[in-house]
Amino acid sequence: MDRQTKQRRIETYRRRCREGGLPLTEQRMAVLEAMLDLDDHPTADRVHDVVARRDSRVSRATVYRALESLARIGVITKACHPGKAVRYDSRTETHHHLVCLRCDAIIDVTDDRLDALPVPDTSSYGFVVSDLRVQLRGVCRRCRELEETS
Amino acid sequence: MDRQTKQRRIETYRRRCREGGLPLTEQRMAVLEAMLDLDDHPTADRVHDVVARRDSRVSRATVYRALESLARIGVITKACHPGKAVRYDSRTETHHHLVCLRCDAIIDVTDDRLDALPVPDTSSYGFVVSDLRVQLRGVCRRCRELEETS
DNA sequence: CGTGCGACTGAGACTTTGTCTCAGGGGTTC
DNA sequence: GAACCCCTGAGACAAAGTCTCAGTCGCACG
Ligand SMILES: [Zn+2]
Ligand SMILES: [Zn+2]
Ligand SMILES: [Zn+2]
Ligand SMILES: [Zn+2]
User: What residue ranges define each of the domains in chain B, with the CATH number in brackets?
Assistant: First the structure.
């Protein structure tokens, strides 16, 4: 992610904190910066590794709490995955995911037709939809290559 | 799920076991029956509760293993969810999900337009797609009602 | 700048979720 | 029925996430 985009995202975060009356702490800023630097879809523990490498005093609980609060105010999102750990996503605009069923990689994909997909009417379920995501499950390039050579 | 459908699903399971050379045990049959009776999208522990109520000697590890093996041979599927526990799905045909971000409910939804969605070309990513799922995130009826009254 | 409130933090205990080990049991085939 | 091999139960273990609580720090206010 380029420097300018990163700066803009951090400004958004500052603004949302002010609006929500949330104190803006050094630790949460470090977590957000780590998320913006990592542009894959890391687990909380992986984010903690990165943050701790820069400042070893940031605790695991704080990283977990910070990621939840960042997701709650919409500065980051949670990605879905049929595995065990929650995956966080620094991209907040609508996009879709390739999910590798072998290695658990999550790869961003943009496709005009997917983006143009209208949200269906779910009022009969009493359900209010805020977000539509398409998930393409399959096998990534690296996993296929590994399989062929074996 | 009606009796006839359930019987057909169990027959499919028997056949896949024979084809795959897997012994068909009482415990795995109990896990499959529990999945077919629960038509929400239960966690492994919830399936274990149901199975254990019928036969308290079935161990937790067996239920976890059985669910994985049922998913591997395609008799059930795994649903994606931005939460911590894996959710299993007794429906194997393509369908889509409403996911409540408040209570973690997963509700099946069928929509012709979603079903007709073509799988986009992902060859530039080197990715082979086996399955396309749409996820509609939002808030379910019950959670909205709870919120209004509070 | 100093003060005070309230939310945040660190450390680690605890809970939940999932996996592994290994001796013993049971399905399948012949 | 016998042999083979996978499956199972019980519990230890591991991984992922939450909670508690005393102490700290951001920030609004004066
Ligand atoms: Zn892969
Ligand atoms: Zn993404
Ligand atoms: Zn709900
Ligand atoms: Zn479903």
Answer: 3-79 (1.10.10.10), 93-149 (3.30.1490.190)
Of chain B, the end-to-end C-alpha distance in Å amounts to 35
pLDDT in tens, B45-91: 999 999 999 987 899 999 999 999 999 999 999 999 988 899 999 99
Say which of B111, B131, B137 has its CB closest to residue A131: B137
Count CB atoms within 10 A of the CB of residue B56.
8
Residue A49 identity (one-letter amino acid): D
Q: What is the pLDDT of residues A68-88, one digit of tens each?
A: 999 999 999 999 888 889 999
Helix (H, G, I), strand (E, B) or coil at B131: strand
> Are the CB atoms for B78 and A137 separated by under 8 Å?
no
Give me the A residues in range 1-40 that sit within 7 A (CB) of strand C.
Answer: 21-23, 25-28
**Model-level pTM?**
0.93
When pLDDT is cut at 50, 70 and 90, the band that residue B150 belongs to is: low
Which nucleotide is nearest, taking the CA of residue A43 and each C1'? D16
Distance between CA atoms of residues A90 and A32, nearest Å: 8
For A82, nearest residue in chain B (alpha carbons): B80
Contacts for B64 with CB less than 8 Å, ≥ 6 apart: B44, B48
SS3 A3: helix
Q: Which of B91, B88, B92 is nearest to B63 (CA)?
A: B88
